[in-house]
Amino acid sequence: MLASCANAQTGESDAAPAAAAFETTDVAGFEEPWAIAFAPGTATLFVTEKAGTVKLIDTKTGETATVAGAPKVDYGGQGGLGDIAFLPAEAASTLGTRTIYLSWAEAGEGDTRGAVVGKGKLVCSAPTTCAIEGLNVIWRQTPKVTGRGHYSHRITFSPDGKYMFVTSGERQKGAPSQDTGTTLGKIVRLNLDGTPAAGNPLESKGGVSAEIWSYGHRNLLGIAWDAEGRLWEVEHGPAGGDELNLVKPGANYGWPVRSNGDHYNGDNIPDHEPTDGFAQPALSWNPVIAPGGMIFYTGDQFPAWKGHALIAGLATQAIVDVAIEGESAREVARHEFDNRLRAIAQGPDGAIWVAQDGKGARLLKLTAK
Predict the structure, then answer these.
(1) What are 74-115's pLDDT values in tens digits?
(2) Active-site residues: which are they?
(3) Rounded to whole angstroms, how far apart are CA atoms 218 and 256?
(4) Taking a C-beta distance cutoff of 8 angstroms, is the pair 91, 67 a contact?
């Protein structure tokens, strides 16, 4: 694999694409896939399609099916069905019955919308016969606003399995990211039933402030835990300034006051500086990578990737390989594809699964050569 150039700390790389370290198998097609996740303990991969469908694929047989009981979503722009997540503690060799979490865009009064998270039961009577039952909304982004962008709504669970973290985008509104009376532009930390978790930084303020774990974010489309149990997120900047951040409780990441990018109309935004009072990105990119999902690789098929963050790139049409070095990070390589990449997951055997973005998207499996 070819290393990125020396100034990859700011993501400015014109290095040649890395030589392929894997073989790619085209497995199946989906319409506007947004998230992919294996049910823990199984070889069954679940796929959300943005227009509002949940599908599954038995990766051992290649058989696909539609999961009944998906929620009604507000589809349009960046909105629709979002993330899908399962509790690692409920790992089992058969699908059976287990808890399922979904996120999606929900319509509000007037011309408003917001992200929500729902919790229900996945009930499977056969390997490819599954339904979602008792799905109820347990968390809502506050407030609902106009527009159809920057929902974020990625879901992850703490390594001890006690808490749910949800990324809540600033809905292209900017200023609410700095307003701790809203959950726009935040990461929230919740109990598994969607209520605010005890010990959150702004717990004493009550209301939605009690949900906040970190703030000053823009559009957070990847979130994952490293081997040390630290939480990281990757988010879209404006015109430049995509960021990888080590997430710390109560930290303010600066948007829209600071960014290593500029407004789309060319207006300047002051860059991050060590003395500006905001948390600094571990790594930023200019030009942008336009990140999709992110994982930390823990398998054995690709030893060179172990412990690295692997980010699905939309604009880059690449897997962006990032090494973590303490509280900083360094881009190691980009593995290019022919299409935008929306989602990424690690299979039970250490293979990497990637979903392309958009209509007629393909699900790809990457295995070691």
Answers:
(1) 999 999 999 999 999 999 999 999 999 999 999 999 999 999
(2) 150
(3) 8
(4) no
